[in-house]
Amino acid sequence: MIDFAACSRGRTSDVKDSALTVGERSEFTPDEVDLWLVPSLDCPAGLQGALGQTLSGDESDRAARFHFAQDRNRFIAARSILREILSFYLNCCPAEVCFAYQPNGKPHLRFQPLLNKDLRFNLSHSGEVAMYAISRGREIGVDVELSRLNISWAELAGSFFATGEVAALHRLSAKDRMRGFFNCWTRKEAYVKARGEGLSIPLDAFEVSLAPTDPPALCRVSDPKELERWSLWDLGLTGDLAGALVVEGKPSRFRLFSWSWADSSQSGTAAVRLCPGVNNCHVRHLFGAIGGVPITAPLHTPG
Length: 303
Ligand SMILES: CC(C)(COP(=O)(O)OP(=O)(O)OC[C@H]1O[C@@H](n2cnc3c(N)ncnc32)[C@H](O)[C@@H]1OP(=O)(O)O)[C@@H](O)C(=O)NCCC(=O)NCCS
Description:
By secondary structure, the chain is an alpha+beta fold. The chain has two domains: 4-138 and 251-295, CATH 3.90.470.20; 146-234, CATH 3.90.470. It is 30% helix and 28% strand. The chain has nine helices and 16 strands. The chain is globular. The two termini are 28 Å apart. The structure holds coenzyme A. Coenzyme A is lined by residues 75, 78, 104-107, 122-125, 141, 143, 160, 185, 188-189, 192-193, 196, 198-199, 203. The site of coenzyme A has 22 residues, from helix 5, strand 5, strand 7 and helix 8.
C-alpha cells in the first residue's frame, strides 16, 4: 500500500530521497512501468512564472481558456511536469517534447529523439493530485480520483456503471461502498484511457471488479481477447485517493516516484535538477507493492 497522506507530507518510512540517475533512464525496460505521483500540482508562487515556459503554443492557448486561475495553474503545472518527466526518459529538453493526439484526445509522443524507446504514457489528475504512468511498448491508462464523500454514488453508478457493477456495489456494506464505488470508477476510466478511445466506449459495455476484497480485474468485455490483452492494477493508494492502472500485457516491475516542489527550508533531501525551467523539485523513490508485484528500488542510487 502507498500511504498517500504520508507521501503528501513527505513523511513515510517507505520514502527515500535521492537524485535520479542516468542508469534509471537507460535501464528502464519494456517489462516495467514507472509511476510518478504528484501530491500537489499547486506550485509555490515564486515558480509559477517559470512553469509555463516549456509549454507549446497549443498548450498555452488551452491554458488561457481556463476560466479559473486555479484550474489554469494546475493544467500548466501538470503539463510542465509531464514534459519534465518525459524529457528525463528521452534525454532531451522539456520544451523539445512534442505531442500528437489520437482522435479521442489521448496524447502521445510525436517522435522520440535519439533512441527508439517506444515510450508510452498516460496521466490523470484529480483536484491538486496527479499521477503519471510511463511504459515502453505497452499501451497504458491511469486514473486517480479524490473521493468526495458527499457524492450521490447510487445515482452516478446507475448512470455510468454496468448492471453487474451496480448490483455488486449494492451488495457491499455501507463501510466498503465508497471504496467500491471509486475502485469501479478508476478501473473503468483507466481501461478506457488505456484504449485511448475515451467515452466512445460506453462505460456500461464492460465490467470490472470493485469489492475491496476482490482482486482488481477486467471481468467482462464484448471482445474476449481484450481480457487477455490487458492487466488491471489497483494502485493501493490510501487516504482519500483511489487509483487504477491498466497496462497492455503484464509488467513484472514497478518503480514509483513522488514529485514535490523544492522547499528551500528542507535540508538533507536531494534537490534534483530534473527540471531546468523550474529549477528544483524533489524526487522520492517510494517502496511498497502494487498487486503483489514489488515496487523495486532504483537500479542505481547516487553514492
Ligand atoms: C478524457 C477522459 C479520457 C478522462 O477524463 P478524466 O477522468 O476526467 O480526466 P483525467 O485527469 O483522468 O485524465 C485526463 C488526461 O488524460 C489524457 N487524455 C485525454 N484524452 C484521453 C483519451 N481519449 N484516452 C486516454 N487519455 C486521454 C490527457 O493527458 C488528459 O490530461 P491533460 O489534457 O490535462 O493532459 C474521458 O474518459 C472522460 O472524459 N471521462 C469522463 C469521466 C466520467 O464521466 N466518468 C464516469 C464514471 S466511470
